[in-house]
User: Fold these one by one.
Assistant:
Number 1:
Amino acid sequence: MNSMEKDFLKNSLEETFKVLEYLSQCEPRKAASRRTGLEIQAARFANRALLAGAVGMGIAALLAYWHTSQSPLPDMMKNIALALIMFSTLSTFASLLAPIFASAWTLVRWKTISLRNMLADITHENTFVEVLKNHHENALANAKYWLELRVNRAEARVAYFFGEKAAGLALLGSAYVCAKEFGGFPWLSQTLMAGPVTENLGDSILLMVIALVLGISIGAMLLKHVNARYRFQIELIDNALRK
């Protein structure tokens, strides 16, 4: 390979790196930005109502403690404590119902909201695509190749152990079932307290296997999250390469 070919390869890689560096900054719209104004207001109301309920219950608990351990409260203070408990209960129910009603209203207008979100997604992603179009097609194609290679390798790594894409959730269920069948949390605590002694060697090995299954399942789900990010970047490149 002569110096001219080396320089060309170096320049091509540098531009590919620039594409990948830019793509690493590209993020899809967050779920919070897809919520309607009513849903946002309902969430704020729910948080405030829950806080108010907690404060009311805390004051009522203090009054109850004073009444039982220090000195009996007068009737007026008892009524105040009961009113605070009622207020706390109603506030808690309100904090639960507000998001439900907001979601129900959103479902009624799902066509309008879906269209609005789709247009916002197009506008958001088109901003990234226009920047990518400034790069050479070869650099975009190379970046796409490396991203697809990372995705395929990650998926093959999961499939090597489990043979299916839904391995993460399946393994989480397996770990839970195994722990439950062998005694649940009491068995876990007893095994951990006993340690890897000779009398407890079988249970210790079984616990290690369950922990390994759980750890691998969490790793598989994290890989799926990373792959989703890479796939979003690949979609941006595909849009930029469109004529």
Number 2:
Amino acid sequence: MRGFCMLSRRIFLYRLYLVFNIAIIWVLFSLLFLHNIVKVDKELLQSRRLSFFSLAFAIIGFIVVSAEAFYLQNAFRKLPLWLSTILRMMLTFFLFLLVGIIFLSIYFIFSYHGTFTDFVDIFLENILLTPSFLMFIIDLGVLSFISILILEVTDKYGPGGIGNLLRGRYNKPQNENRIFLFLDINDSTTIAERIGHERYFNLLKDFFADITDPILSNSGHIYQYVGDEISLYWKNTIINKLRCLAFVREACVAINRRQEYYLKMYDVVPTFKTGIHAGEVTAGYIGIIKKELVFSGDTLNTTARIRSKCHELNEPFVASAEFLDGLTKPKGYQINEIGEIELRGRMEKEKLFSVRFA
């Protein structure tokens, strides 16, 4: 499993972006929680400014959510969600205590002029044993739970997915023009039989983890994982067509860089093939007890057929004329016409092109 030190720059920045957004939520919620605390301890506002309170929540939120996003979420990923959540909230509380002790120690060393005994007595009487501190701990627990929930939902729906869900963007079917890329691992059945299904499953996890950085760096969206296949999509624009091609190149580079690791762990270096197509689709959420964003239309069927033709054509990366429309000799790529190819399930032939790196 990859630890914090193994995070790529893109994944690190993506998680840091999440941390900042959740820290902002902590600040906004601090206003509501301050209202609750003041109800319990009306003298609080006489000695503390609202800006100080919000800043404290922002700092605590940033530290807690950073620990969640960069370490705790992965550390307990193999545990049941309920147990993982309890342990993470307990560690969040201890982390809060540790941060509090550090700040209090700094204050005592540099700003307090009395004895340590007096300092402890004042701390117990004016902070720890007050009703407002109890409310603060309750609020901390609620926000920690919300942070964990946001991170888990974001993992489920991917970048931008939670925003679409909250806005209800796909509650009604939407007609959209999208680029689709279907990628799967070559000789997957043979590899699975040779190394065993458990090792093969771990290979899939490593493979998809290694191509995550190219996905993020090229603004790709993950549609779904199906066995050894991953489906990606972009809005159908010229810049995204170039990003789609760049993803294929960078994914190859990412896997090649890890050749020694794959040979050591699995005795094989995975290779892959891709089919790329673009066109109109209908998108929307489907399901009652389990909602999922689904794209439908001939575009997806054609993409799947193109991908399945890669082996027959002896070409690892094949794209359609619709995808290449508007691209004039993209720099760094060799685009060669294969010809009009008949695809299973389609009446008309599709003009296909091979994609190679110059």
